[in-house]
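Researcher: I'm preparing a figure for a lab meeting and need a structural model of a single chain. I don't have an experimental structure, so a prediction will have to do for now. The sequence is pasted below. Please return the structure as tokens so I can convert it later.
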Amino acid sequence: MTTIGMLIPEANRPSLFSDGDMARLQALGRLKLNERNRHMDGAEAGGFLRDCGIALGSWGTPHPGTPGLLEKCPHLRLWEHVAGSVKGMFGPHLQGRTLTIASCAPAIGDSVAEFVLAQLIDGLRGISSNAEANRREPRPYPKHRKCLFESVVGVLGASQVGRKVISLLKGMGAGVVVYDPYLEPGEAQRLGVIKETDLTALFRGADAVTMHTPALPATRKIVGAEQLQALRDGAVLVNASRGECLDEQALVEELRRGRITAFLDVSSPEPAAMDSELRSLPNCRYTSHIAGGPSLRLGRQAVDDVEKFLRGEPPLMPVTEAMLERTA
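Model: Understood. Here is the structure written out token by token.
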């Protein structure tokens, strides 16, 4: 029977695992639980996982890149990261090891896509801005109001989250145009989208643009003044990816003109300074990186992955070092 080591502290587990999924996990092997009310350090985690074949970690826990940890865990075959990014887990310490590292990024992607869809609907239909105006006027009506069905939405990045957003948008009848140098024409056709090779043209032709790019050197401030100025009056910009991908000063200058609305769940730095205009401009909705984060979706995927692994099947998202060049 495989020993499964749960590094996630007791206090954090209810936000990730339902009672039903914990019961499923217990039925899959000998489950060792971190009963502490805190995260273990690397030395503690190494000792805890010494006899484990599977480890489950998350935000704040030690991981395969923690110095010295894997040396103490000769039996580990699967590291299930019940969170998103696994950068920092790869390196020379994995040489000679047969260790699958899996990410629950797909589950986070579902939550982010749901959040982005809500923001696009809010922005295009003027819901929250209209609610604010109703505090001052008897019956205001949004100047620019569109349903998704009659809108063109530009998607910057056909990433994992980007594709989930595309699926939701297509289901609502929106027209979708995508900018992504890695998206092959045949794949764009399969997704039912138009591929745009000019980023500024994407912004010029869209009623709303949503950003889904990882923070890489090539994507730093990929959206700047040229793209923002190309947006039509009443357009909506959503960024739930990384703040580094957006020139925020250029955005502030465009927001001051009152032409567009921005929904930002990320910023650079994060959080934004308390005196940042991202917090105070009336046409900017700034939230606290809440699009993803812990949810029971992650625990469900994690247990599904463990089940698959024990059957000799790959988890939903095994990650390789080569993938890190294009992922968050």
